[in-house]
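Mods, move this if it's the wrong board.
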Amino acid sequence: MKEITAIIRRDKLPETKRALDELGYPSMSIQSVEGRGKQKGAMCAEMDSELPDQFCTAVKLTPTPSTYAVEHTLPKAALYVPKRYLTIVVPDDVVKTVVKAIIKVNATGKRGDGKIFVCPIETAVRVRTGETGGEAIA
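Not the wrong board. Structure tokens:
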């Protein structure tokens, strides 16, 4: 078994859920998170798929500085972009298929498309029935 963790754009969640459901893997955990990657927290990287091109150059974001920023001299305050964090556990033989489906839905070719991590899972246990392994994730 493998755990697939995907950090994706907020607006891509419905399409991603639909694609995974079509593959037969509708079970997942979803969290709202904030973070930053190569775009260094630029909100336009998150919003550019939803807004006109000229909008990003006109928007001036004024972040609230953190305690760390107040206590230290920083060139600019760090911004964090809202994202969705998906976790899904699948059998080893479908990992590539699930990852390809997530990429197909979420790839826009622009910064902020997200990341996918795949980690091994030693075992799983369904609390209600006591089923273990692959039976617990089905």
